[in-house]
Write a structure and sequence with these properties.
The complex is a heterotrimer of chains A (222), B (48) and C (236). In chain A, 82% of the residues lie in helices and 0% in strands. Chain A has 222 residues and is mainly α. The chains are: A mainly alpha (222), B mainly alpha (48), C mainly alpha (236). Chains A and C meet through α7, α8 and α9 of A and α4 and α5 of C.
Chain lengths: 222, 48, 236
């Protein structure tokens, strides 16, 4: 890992560790979404197994957006982006550090939420549990990588908070489908999630690469 | 015409009307935009 | 001279549209299985084909803009105008597809909608380009064009992925497919003719509207540039 990447990453992690504002708000938001879906759909028995993949994914999406909206707020407030533009270090490293940091935050939220979720929905894992350890990070990475990139795109817009989900969600849809299908397959044990896992890997590789390549363009466009 | 075909026909008419509304509506909007740009350009030319 | 050509082109377009309408409603026979409702086909499918074409134009515009930004600023502006025109006209045509399709589906196959590969991809494509247009409207600052171009590329990249993912989904959970399977096709020559005429008519219309949108945008760009120039001179 290069120094610039490491510096940015440690900075973001340290700031978050002190305030914990992103993680706390994400956690609470995700929990609220899970509860709301329970009221909306009354999950019982095998029905709960069928919908839990979708509920978890959507909860992650909404929770992440609340954090992603603020992803670049600190950088804007303190003219960090201007400073970054003047350094020779590639902007891609700042971007990657921010993605990794946000990724870790969302993963923490998911890890804390998962047992609560399994209890509330009485979930049993019908398939291979270890596959969940593949699916959730891959899906979350797709969301956070694209989300951080689009958050940078919409920095200067008037309705920044509204615009981010509007441009993120359509593009995220195939990854959402894969995440939901894979999670449901693992929980119900009824089908093989391998195809979906491969799709997520492909999606992550393609969009992370494109984001890294185009971030410099976006950085200098701000 | 039997009732099913009648409803079919109504749906076809609805589809064609929607298509025309969208397409002509857009064309009209474009026309307005064109006029606005022309006016703005003329205003600038005359104010110089 | 130019005005005459434009009027001539417009007249030809109108003539084609009228002829296409006549072909679709009065000449083409109703489908043996679907009946009367099949006539929606002659408007629905050409609009779909053209929507995809215009979205492709938009993608090329976005790529062009990013490529020419530094080297040929004017060429970049032209590319950006194409990107916007393609996206907007594409959204209009795609809206036609998404509204006429369910009307057709409801009567022909009994359902307004299904989440098969084709429909889902079309819907997501529509969502992506609407979000593109929203970005262009809401993002402020001088670099809107760059940001929009980036989003345009991301969006276009996503489309084949959406299609494939949905195909795989439907392999596992088969669901109705609108528009028939691989061996359904137009065999009746009268139907084929009506279809062909309407493709031509809508292409003529679409290209007319696309060009109009392009020129309006170019005018807008030049106006904005001139205004900016004046501001600069006034303050100098």
């Amino acid at each position: 890992m290069t120094r610039a990447l490491w510096t940015h990453l440690v900075k973001d992690l340290r700031i978050e560790w002190r305030s914990k504002e992103a993680i706390n708000s994400m956690l609470f938001f995700a929990l609220l979404v899970v509860v709301l879906f329970s009221l909306a759909f009354d999950p019982r028995g095998s029905f709960a197994q069928q919908i839990s993949g979708g509920v978890l994914s959507v909860a992650t999406m909404f929770a992440s957006v609340s954090a992603l909206n603020q992803a670049w707020a600190r950088e804007i407030r303190h003219q960090v982006l201007d400073a970054q533009r003047m350094t020779p270090a590639p902007g891609a490293e700042l971007f990657l550090a921010k993605v990794i940091a946000n990724f870790l935050f969302v993963m923490i939220v998911q890890i804390v939420l998962a047992p609560v979720f399994m209890v509330m929905y009485n979930l049993r894992i019908g398939g291979q549990p270890w596959q969940l350890l593949l699916v959730l990070p891959l899906g979350t990475w797709a969301l956070v990588a694209n989300g951080t990139f689009f958050a940078a795109l919409s920095i200067r817009s008037r309705n920044r908070e509204l615009l981010l989900p509007l441009i993120l969600f359509p593009i995220f849809m195939p990854a959402l489908l894969a995440m939901v299908q894979a999670t449901t397959a693992i929980l119900t044990g009824e089908s093989d999630p391998t195809l979906w896992i491969k799709l997520l890997v492909g999606y992550d590789i393609i969009f992370t690469t494109v984001s890294l390549l185009l971030f410099e363009v976006v950085l200098h466009a701000e | 015409m039997d009732p099913a075909t009648q409803i079919d026909h109504q749906f076809v008419v609805a589809a064609y009307i929607i298509t025309w509304t969208l397409q002509l509506g857009y064309l009209a909007w474009l026309g307005l935009k064109w006029r606005a740009e022309k006016r703005s350009a003329d205003r600038r030319l005359h104010s110089r | 001279m130019k005005k005459t050509l434009i009027l001539l082109y417009a007249a030809v377009t109108v003539a084609l549209m009228i002829w296409g309408f006549y072909q679709a409603i009065y000449v083409a026979p109703s489908d043996a299985m679907q009946g009367e409702i099949s006539h929606i086909f002659y408007y629905h499918v050409p609009n779909a084909m053209l929507a995809f074409l215009f979205f492709a134009v938009s993608l090329l515009g976005s790529i062009g803009f990013l490529s020419f930004r530094r080297s040929h600023p004017e060429r970049a502006q032209i590319s950006d105008a194409w990107a916007l025109a393609g996206a907007e006209v594409g959204v209009i045509f795609c809206t036609v597809v998404l509204t006429t399709g369910p009307l057709w589906g409801r009567r022909a196959w009994g359902i307004w909608w299904t989440w098969d590969a084709r429909l889902t991809t079309t819907l997501v494509l529509w969502l992506i380009y609407v979000s593109y247009l929203l970005l262009r409207r809401f993002a402020a600052g001088p670099q809107v064009q760059t940001l929009a171009a980036v989003l345009g590329i991301f969006g276009a990249l996503d489309v084949p992925i959406v299609y494939m993912s949905n195909r795989w989904w439907r392999t596992q959970h088969p669901a109705p497919v609108f528009g028939g399977g691989p061996d359904s096709g137009i065999k009746d020559p009268a139907m084929l003719a009506a279809f062909g005429w309407n493709v031509l008519a809508w292409a003529a219309w679409g290209i007319f509207v696309l060009l109009l949108r392009y020129f309006v945008e170019r005018k807008h760009q030049l106006n904005a540039e001139a205004e900016a120039q004046e501001e600069l001179e006034a303050n100098a």
